[in-house]
Design brief:
71 residues, mainly alpha
């Protein structure tokens, strides 16, 4: 027969998988882009100003060009 897995271990594993899936989906959807940008700017360019989140997204979408659309 199969292995006996305790409910606690299974719920811990399920929670871990759910967190990993949520992180992956967030990365794909762009949830962490601005935070990564800020970390990079502070690490590599500490003397230069950091764009606000609004400015960052405006510049990011402008750089993609008018022909790139998701819908």
């Amino acid at each position: 027969m199969g292995r006996n897995i305790s409910p606690t271990a299974m719920s811990g594993a399920t929670l871990r998988v759910c967190r990993q899936v949520a992180r992956y989906v967030g990365d794909v959807m762009g949830d962490t882009h601005y935070a990564r940008y800020v970390a990079h700017r502070r690490r590599c360019h500490p003397d230069e100003p950091v764009l606000s989140e609004r400015e960052y997204w405006r510049a990011r979408h402008a750089a993609a060009g008018p022909t790139v659309r998701c819908c």
